[in-house]
Amino acid sequence: MNKVYLDNAATTPISEEVIDAMVSIMKTNFGNPSSTHSFGQEAKILIENVRRQIADYLHVTPAEIIFTSCGTESNNMIIKSSVEHLGVERIISSPLEHKCVSESILDMKSRKGVEVAYIRPNEKGDIDLAKLEELLKSSDKKTLVSLMHANNEIGNITDIKKIAELCKAHNTLFHSDTVQTMAHMSLNFSEIPVDFASCSAHKFHGPKGVGFAFIRKATGLKGIITGGPQERSLRAGTENVSGIVGLGKALELSLEHMEEYTNHMQGIKDYTIERLSAEISGIKFNGRSAEKENSLYTVLSALLPYKNPLIGLQLDMKGVAISQGSACSSGASKPSMVMMMVLSEDEMDQCTPLRISFSHLTTKEDIDTLVTALKEISNDFVIEKTNAEHR
Ligand code: PLP
User: Fold this and answer.
1) At residue 369, what are phi and psi to the nearest 5 degrees?
2) Helical spans, DSSP H, in the chain
3) How many angstroms separate the alpha carbon of residue 147 from the centre of ligand 1?
4) Is residue 117 scored above 80 in pLDDT?
5) Per residue in 358-381, pLDDT tens?
6) Which of 141, 212, 284, 300 is positioned for an S-S bond with 90, CB 3.0–4.6 A?
7) 5 Cβ contact list (under 8 Å, min separation 6)
8) Crossing angle, helix 258-279 and helix 241-256, to 10 degrees?
9) Where are the domains of the chain?
């Protein structure tokens, strides 16, 4: 069976060039970057080169890039250390955040008594900046705002420049989870005054188990993993040298081909919207997903006009790997908080969300396979429903 992968927001296939770069390092350089001899120093140079490369991409200084094991660790570190080391007493966030952000915030609430305020998005998934400003004005407590750049389920892009400027004007720290946008778009942090951001290499064809946190130097944030003085004492532990080299290679490829990849994926996304709209009667798209502005070109969130909690499994059996982004309230799957925010109660009860996410490797033929599979499932579903009504 020809298998089709349309779950690139979950993870992307690692590039051949990335594998080659990593294997070469693993074969030729096993030094510990903290060692002062030549083996160690060669490894150290490899890491520092990638740090410089990232800093150039983001228009920041290399000292502001801290390598971690993933996006989850970066977000945990930023949120928890803001409370533990920078005296943050209040966090403003939204119910759209990834679990690694929302759970870190809840942890700080329960263990450190941090006050938490959520901005409820509208049905399009937009965050009201007037509401944010109102909250910023309403308290003198030291505050951290944590709002993601792009949502991993519906693909909405938030204007982090405006938010960062608002936070700056109110002397408030601003963290943005940029895991879905890093290496997918140009980011200039000399113009966007964000204090903290996060990255995960496996979202752009790099290896799993490596990422970084951007930590603006002036904030004075400290680490939460203690031990040796690695990563300027912000993240103890021997560095994942081959992983960092892999991240660097993946970033290099993404930046080199950014325009080409963006155009390709936007074209695939447009084609998917066109085909699904023509073939699946009653289909809708969630959030700002079907819009060109303010939406990730990598993510399309669709809503099927019938309830089918098994759709992910059925598509998988037909060779199509997709994420359900489940809003189903039946069975074992819990409704997703993001879907609860953007869908009406009727839609939650009667419809099925699907997250289709693309990479530069996705082809129109992949989309045709998805559409054929979905049509078969939808037809079976309609026939089954009609029979049940006549029984
Ligand atoms: N933040 C967002 C928006 C994500 O989509 C993900 C991954 O799904 C993460 C954070 C976590 O990243 P990682 O898988 O590297 O821990």
Assistant:
1) -60, -45
2) 16-28, 38-58, 71-86, 99-112, 129-137, 160-169, 241-256, 258-279, 311-317, 337-342, 345-350, 364-390
3) 14
4) yes
5) 999 999 999 999 999 999 998 776
6) 141
7) 13, 321, 362, 366
8) 70
9) 4-12+257-382, 16-256
Ligand 1 pocket member 152 (CB < 6 A): yes
Give me ligand 1 centre to Cα 11, in Å.
9
Ligand 1: distance of its center to the CA of 73 in Å? Answer: 9
CATH domain 4-12+257-382 topology? Aspartate Aminotransferase, domain 1 (3.90.1150)
Q: For the chain, state the CA radius of gyration.
A: 22
Active site residue 70: no
pLDDT at res. 38: 97
CB distance 146 to ligand 1 below 6 Å: no
**In CATH, 16-256 is 3.40.640.10:** yes
Which residue in the list 70, 100, 328, 351 is annotated as catalytic?
A: 328
Mutational test site, ligand 1, from 99, 203, 204, 296, max ligand atoms within 8 Å of CB: 203
Distance 178 CA to ligand 1 centre (A): 9
CA nearest ligand 1 atom 10, residue:
71
Transcribe 147-206 into DSSP letters: --SB-TTT-BBP-HHHHHHHHHHTT-EEEE--TTTTTTS---TTTS--SEEEEEGGGGT-
CB 96 near ligand 1, within 6 Å: no
% residues pLDDT > 70 (the chain): 95
Q: Which residue is closest in CA terms to ligand 1's atom 9? A: 71
- Kindly state the tokens that stand for 235: 């993240």
With the CA atoms of 245, 7, 323 and 100 taken in that order, what torsion angle do they form, in degrees rounded to the nearest 10? 20
Residue 335's pLDDT band, with cuts at 50, 70 and 90, is confident
pLDDT at 331: 43
